[in-house]
Here is the input.
Amino acid sequence: MSHDILNNYLDAVEQNLLALSNAYVEQFSATILTPERANLKLRIRFQGQYLLAISEALLVADGRVSYLDYRYHCQNEKNELIFRYDSTPHFPNLPSFPHHKHLPDTVIATDKPDLAQVLQEASDLVTPND
Here is the structure.
């Protein structure tokens, strides 16, 4: 059952990637470690050379996917940070601890975003909504 939940999650990720018209996947690595644990690593290159690197450590608990750790890092063609969401516990004073978002000049409190939201945020850098 847990293995099916992980496979369904990974299939949904793949569908989100296929829906991106302005990007291609440089790396897609999904490693199922146990029926309840998996690691996901992605590198997505957007037009304009933006790079979105994704890393998730996944766990199936109570019939759903949860996250042991995650990192969604977006940078421009000069390797300069655009944004990074992560759960590294190094900002204990933020109300969303350990979740937070790095921007070029600051770190802000935020809940963990859905991966589809992150893909859309990165995609909007290339094709902004008017």
Summary: The mean pLDDT is 93. The longest strand covers residues 23-34. The beta strands are 23-34, 37-46, 51-61, 64-75, 81-86, 100-103, 106-109. The helical segments are 2-18, 115-126.
